[in-house]
Amino acid sequence: MSSDNNQTLTTRQGHPVSDNQNVRTVGSRGPTTLENYPFIEKITHFDRERIPERVVHARGAGAHGVFEAYGKVGDEPIAKYTRAKLFQEAGKQTPLFVRFSTVVHGGHSPETLRDPRGFAVKFYTEDGNWDLVGNNLKIFFIRDPLKFPDMVHSFKPDPVNNLNDPERMFDFLSLTPEATHMVTFLFSPWGIPANYRQMQGSGVNTYKWVNSEGVGVLVKYHWEPLKQGIKNLLQKDAEKIQATHTEHATQDLYDAIERGDYPEWELCVQIMSDDEHPELDFDPLDPTKLWPPEQFPFLKVGKMTLNRNPQNYFNEVEQSAFGTGVLVDGLDFSDDKMLQGRTLSYSDTQRYRVGANYLQLPINAPKTHVATNQRDGQMEYKVDLAPGQNPHVNYEPSSLGGLKEAPKAGKDHEPHYDASLVRQRIERTNDFGQAGDTYRAFEDWERDELIENLVGALKVCKPDIRERMIGYFTQADADYGRRVAEGLKHADAQGGSGSADEAQASQYAKDNARGTDGY
């Protein structure tokens, strides 16, 4: 085909389209006939352009980049702790894709809303994909996955009127004391990062590294911004941005990469021996807790640079699919209950949302050898055959030319368990200690913003919900609880109680709308 014809519009069947302006009709005024194949193909595809939105992390932006390993963890050889190949050699580069997101709100919600931010990284390693799925904040609201659907439901709009209601959220949180630490971060300026480039990332959960001898250690992952730094927004500034732009963070990321100002993050880990650590006043597997950096320092292992924007948002950002169970050899799971629950939920979501063959899409497919005995399913467009594999054999073991097991890369990690099968929470909960530490570590302006934001949300809540939350804040720090209580008393005296900003905005629209006689 000549280059002049390469721009010719066709149907999905490859038929050239000579008239893309008019459907086929009986006369110029119609009716339209049913055999309008180009129209039928076009409109029925249009009807199916959207896949189910993510229940959480629906609003997102993404970029391609590269990870460069340092070959060490801190000053030690990294092989001491993990045999994962992508980390071993200084200067080794691994391509990757990152998707940033907001968590609770829908796909077209403003990027200025108070919300954790997702920070998911897909490494296309020589051993297959590794997904490091986390958030910008280093902790979480809950420690047991059984409560995750309840938590999200309480944060989402009311199922009857579809309105967001802070009373529903704080009803749940006031009965979930371990959330106090996360609430302290979320309602401080840390709850609204300035953009995606200038925020931290964290794996949140505890994972394991495994070396060639099969010895495991506990690890936490942290992404620390390099040249771009960390910046957060006050509520009033976020509202000013939202008044004129609801996609500022997506634009900021895209524009920075387009002009060659590539954002960079350093990957750091904290390492802890794989045991219960009775010397700590919390369980190291508890995702509502931080590991004290003075005891478990941040150790640098590599650098990520984002240097290429997606060519198509839907193909690469919306259809990108991440899961906490996507690990390569040398990386492993800890017994963190939330991690175990996420590992089922995340990949199951992608099978439902994108389809059973979502891993064949280019954005999700490994950039290395793939050969499986999995077959068929909606939208399969190739068979994962190895060179020379007998296509008649889709099972293992086989003596007829089927796939064979890979040799082991090192000794298996075999943690020992000797306990009863129970339904119990962890013993060392310490729900308020770190929340108090965080409150006291904030600067004055951060504490002021925290109190103002909490008062603004809690003033619409029933007295018993307020009292429970004030009780939690007081247990974290006496000044913390006192300031929230005083702020609520002042709001009540000003007539603020029970008068949500959303209701005021609705009334403002009624009072200031301009009438018209129609047309």
From TrEMBL:
EC number(s) given by UniProt: 1.11.1.6
EC primary class: oxidoreductase
Cofactor(s) demanded: heme
Catalase core domain segment(s): 10-404
Species for this entry: Paenibacillus aurantiacus
Superkingdom of source: Bacteria
Protein known as: catalase
PROSITE patterns: CATALASE_2, CATALASE_3
Keywords recorded for this protein, A-Z: Heme, Hydrogen peroxide, Iron, Metal-binding, Oxidoreductase, Peroxidase
UniProt cross-references to Gene3D superfamilies, sorted A to Z: Catalase core domain
Family to which the UniProt record says this protein belongs: Belongs to the catalase family.
Region of interest: Disordered: 1-31, 397-416, 491-519
InterPro entries: Catalase (IPR018028), Catalase_AS (IPR024708), Catalase_clade1/3 (IPR024711), Catalase_core (IPR011614), Catalase_immune_responsive (IPR010582), Catalase_sf (IPR020835)
Skewed-composition ranges (Basic and acidic residues): 405-416
